[in-house]
Input
Amino acid sequence: MTTVLGWRTCLMGLLLCMTMPVMADDERWVVLGGDIAETMVALGAADRLVGRDDTSLYPETVTHLPSVGYLRRLSAESVLSLKPDRILASGDAGPAETLEQLEAAGVAVEVIESPDKLASIPDKVRSVAETLGLEAQGRELVESLRDELDALATLPERPNLRAMFILSHGGMTPMVAGQHTAAQEMLETVGLDNAFAAMEGYKPVGAEALARQSPEVVLISRRGLEAMGGEEALWAMPGLDMTPAGGDRRLLVIDDQGLLGFGPRTPALLLELRERLDTLLMEDDSALVEREVPPWT
Output
C-alpha cells in the first residue's frame, strides 16, 4: 500500500512539473506597460529585463533599457530587434496584430489583463508573480500593500469638493477626465467629486463648460503641466479663471504613472495625495510640492 501511494505521489509530481512553465535564469524579457514594469522591479525581477516600452519610466533604472516604442503602437520588428525570449505585457499593449506576429516568431507573450481599479492591484501582482515563477515574492508584496489598501478604504469622509483632472501631452489639446477613467478612480478614492463625471472618457472642454461645472481644485501631471507651458499657461486656459480653482489657484501636481497606473506604488501615492489635498485646503503652500515615494532597493 505504501509503495502504491509512493508511486502515485511521484507520478503526480512529475505530471505537475511537466505542466509548469520552465524559466531559465538567462531568459531575455521585454516588459510592455509601466505598471507591469514597476511590478517586476518590486518583485526583484529587474535583472531579467532587456527592453521596455515608452510608458515604463519607473524606477529610473528601467529607463536605461532600450525602448521598443509606444505601448499601443508597437511594431514586431522593434521588439524582435532585442531578441527577447519572453514578453510580459499589460492589456493595453498593441496592436493585437503585433502581438500575434511576435508569438508567430516564437516569442512567448504573456498579457496581464487588469482594470484601472484600486481593488485590481493585488490580483495584478499575483498574476505577474506567477508568470515570473515568483509566487512567494508576490505574496509578500501583496501583504505589504494590505495596510495601505485598508487605510484607503477607511479614509474619513470629507466635505464635497469638485475637482478636475487635465490630461495633457506635447502636441495635443488638453483634455479633462470624465467617468470610466483611471483619473475618476483616483479622485473618488481620495474623496474628491469629479466635476465632469457626467462625461465619458477624456474630452476637451470649452470655457462655458468649465464655468458651468466650477471645479474647485485642478490636478495635472508634472509632464502635462510642462507640456502646457507651465502653471501660468494652465491658468490661462479659457474659462478656468471663472472657476473657484482658477480664482484661488488650487493646484495639485501629481505623478500620473504612479497614481493612474495602478501598480505597487499607487496605494501609497493615493494616501500621500489625500494628505496633500488636506494640506492644500488649509492653505499651506508646501502642499503644491510634489513628493516621491522612495524606489525599491
The first strand starts at residue 29 and ends at 32. The chain has a mean pLDDT of 88.
